[in-house]
Design a protein that fits this description.
Blueprint (H helix, E strand, L loop, with lengths): L1 E6 L11 E9 L5 E4 L5 E8 L2 E5 L2 E3 L6 E4 L5 E5 L6 E8 L1 H9 L7 E2 L5 H12 L5 H25 L4 H13 L6 H8 L3 H12 L3 H19 L4 H7 L5 H12 L3 H8 L2
Antiparallel strand pairs: 1-2, 2-9, 3-8, 4-7, 4-9, 5-6, 5-8, 7-10
Helix pairs in contact: 1-3, 2-3, 4-6
Length: 270
Amino acid sequence: MREDIIGFSGSKAEESNFHLDLAGISYCDGSYRISRKNSPIFVFEYVIEGKGTLIHDGMKFHPEKGDVYIVHKGSDHTYFSSTDNPWTKIWFNVGGILVERLLETYGLNDVWLVKNCEIHKLFDAGLAYARKKPADVHEKTAITIHRIIQAISNELEKREDVKHSPEGLKLKNFIDANFAEVKELDELSRLIGRSPSQTIRIFKREWKWTPYDYVLEKRIGAAKSMLLGTTFTVKEISSRTGFKDQFYFSSIFKKRTGLAPENYRKVNSQ
């Protein structure tokens, strides 16, 4: 077995918004096996060749050529290569609040394995840059991980599209693009030529949310990103995300997250 591993020093994940711990390529054999309890890191891996097994919090998966898998922080997990058809894979071990927020924003908190996800080039480019060990390696790898997460989300959405009606997709796509401007249910009803009650029923059947709850979820997600990634005031964020005023925004945000916006920013920026 052979591994090409690149290690990095500097602020650890618990001290920064993002940290690249290790990156590399593993040319596995039957002896390859990794186990962690209450993992302190996230792991993103792309399988170039071969097969193996991932056991993640008691769930068993079988990543193989062309698959991507995510090992989540806080999990108990083991992954190991097949003996007959061993893995070759590219991987990044990363940490920090940014990774958690990105996975949450893109709806990947409960995603562990994505079959046939051809994003090899993103992993290749990220590893090639990391090998140079530039001063901005953590910042540039954060962008790479963001692109990987976004690409996984886009791939999963394409697959979901096959299962949804044109009306359901039209509603979701409109809300995704205009969640800060959507004010009335009638606006959505007119979009698909249905009554308000039919619109609610169609959307909930296909997306498991009412339109109102989905709009609210999108607004809260955007607000979280702005609180951590910008210096906008709470008033500015409430306006940009479509809330009628900062007091209503603060009240809803606290109900959904358990923290007032100012406290959320303070706690997650430390």
